[in-house]
Design a protein that fits this description.
It is a single chain. By secondary structure, the protein is of the alpha+beta class. It folds into two domains: 342 residues, 2-enoyl-CoA Hydratase, Chain A, domain 1; 91 residues, Pdz3 Domain. It contains twelve helices and 23 strands. The strands form seven sheets. It has a six-stranded mixed β-sheet, sandwiched between helices. It has a four-stranded antiparallel β-sheet with strand order 7-6-8-9. It has a four-stranded antiparallel β-sheet with strand order 16-15-22-19. The two termini are 34 Å apart. The N terminus and C terminus are likely disordered.
């Protein structure tokens, strides 16, 4: 059985998936459910006046889906004992709204419900949109941060480092002041023949770019290159997410690093919100391998009802593993979940440096479960490394502060974060830097592709 464990952080929703075959065979109203024996729930005293143990509901109706959400949360949720009793699932709430109303908000900022098609599309790297991301800075400065190779934005000439001046005739200041970001950056599929016109500034010159929305297939790796720094060969890897294609992409990148005799490595996770946990294990094993084979990488612990689901992930050794003893990770507030697991899992064994800013802080994981055309992704387990450490809800702090220099491309040795990483690897010196911190949620964009990975 493939261990399908995912960790994905996002603007309003952060994911994880594990042991899908086992989880998916659970049914509502089972022996350990919200309505089963031993939970103390008294239907006869319920203010909603429902006296049946299992109400008769139309399959896939909102009430039936919300009841499934509630039942699954009672069974699998890491904080199931914090759920209220007497919850009325009936009404007109959409499943994601219902889930948000019952989840344990003190610790849970992550659980969510999505359409199954959107959830599955993310892990295939597929979505409908334009294929780029941007970041807002003070004084109405907005820069393109990443562009998906071969996507509509790439085809139109959009590049990281361009400053967005106007969109469809509205200046950035007008868009910001009128809160129009969600409107000007999206195009419904039935209007995809209508372009969005961007004016961008690059190298002091303005350019007009015409973008048409379409189907986008995003890779996991955005750049993999070998840099010559003095007499050393340093690998640079910009990894955006841990999706279905990640392991194959990583294998190809590390085979090239090994052929280039790379002795030091910078892994750029600045925009990596997470994904499959086996991708985390794979990356960590490619960095190390050798003597770390079979040693504990990360431990998963479920709630008291499902201790039989507890499991360990271990390092492996591959032909392209580099067997490094130190590595630098570029991180920001957008570095979350599966990407944080890589960093935390390596720390007990090799020298690990975080360059940039404090990470997001998500030391818990989720199992996706399907019902009708919905996927419920609740927090179901906590994570810890070989030192039994996993308490980084406030994020992991940087060893060397550096700014995300959005004016330069990935892999440019003069880009602020990479320059600091190369310096730190060389002699642990850290260039002075003013860090413009950010966390997902800066932009109030509610399209699903954006929520699942900060892309348009």
């Amino acid at each position: 059985m493939r261990r399908s464990i995912a960790l994905l952080a996002a603007v309003a929703a952060l994911f994880i998936a594990a042991c899908e075959n086992d989880v998916n065979r659970l049914h509502p109203w089972g022996a350990d459910s919200y309505y089963g024996p031993g939970n103390g729930y008294d239907w006869t005293a319920d203010t909603a006046g429902m006296t049946d143990k299992v109400p008769a509901l139309a399959e896939c109706s909102l009430d039936e889906v919300n009841l499934w959400v509630l039942d699954t949360m009672w069974d699998m949720y890491l904080w199931y004992d914090q759920l209220a009793t007497g919850i009325d699932f009936r009404g007109d709430q959409e499943p994601d709204e219902f889930l948000h109303s019952i989840m344990y908000k003190t610790s849970d900022h992550f659980s969510y419900v999505a359409k199954k098609e959107d959830h599955d599309g993310y892990y295939s790297g597929r979505y409908y949109g334009f294929g780029f991301g941007f970041r807002k800075l003070p004084e109405y400065m907005v820069y393109v941060t990443l562009v998906i190779p071969g996507g509509p934005a790439d085809t139109a000439g959009m590049r990281r480092g361009q400053r967005i001046v106007a969109i469809d005739g509205k200046t950035v200041q007008e868009i910001e002041d009128q809160n129009l970001w969600g409107t000007v950056t999206s195009r419904p599929e039935d209007e995809k023949e209508i372009p969005i016109v961007y004016v961008v500034e690059e190298a002091g010159e303005e350019k007009t770019l015409t973008l048409y929305a379409g189907d986008v297939t995003a890779p996991s790796i955005y750049k993999a290159t070998t840099l010559t720094v003095g007499k050393k060969k340093v690998g640079y890897l910009m990894l955006k997410s841990f999706i279905n294609s990640t392991n194959d992409e990583l294998d190809a990148a590390f085979a090239k690093f090994k052929a280039d005799a790379v002795t030091e490595l910078v892994v750029d996770l600045r925009y990596n919100g997470g994904g499959w946990l086996d991708g985390s294990e794979h990356l960590a094993s490619l960095i190390t391998g050798g003597d770390l084979k079979d040693k504990l990488f990360t431990r998963l612990t479920y709630n008291g009802k499902h201790q039989d689901y507890n499991s360990d992930y271990h390092f492996k050794d591959y032909s392209q593993s580099l067997e490094l003893t130190k590595v630098a990770f570029i991180a920001t507030g957008g570095t979350a979940s599966a990407s944080e697991v890589v960093i935390n899992g390596l720390k007990p064994y090799i020298e690990v440096a975080i360059i940039g800013d404090t990470t997001y802080g998500k030391p818990v994981g989720m199992n996706p479960m399907n019902h009708c055309d919905y996927t419920l992704v609740p927090i179901t387990f906590k994570l810890a490394n070989a030192d039994a450490y996993g308490d980084y809800f406030d994020g992991m702090p940087a060893d060397c502060a550096a700014d995300d220099d959005v004016t330069r491309d990935f892999g440019d040795p003069e880009e602020g974060s990479l320059k600091a990483a190369l310096s730190y690897l060389n002699d642990k010196t850290c260039p002075a830097a003013t860090v413009r911190s950010w966390r997902p949620g800066e932009l109030d964009i509610r399209t699903v592709p954006y929520q699942m990975g900060w892309l348009f």
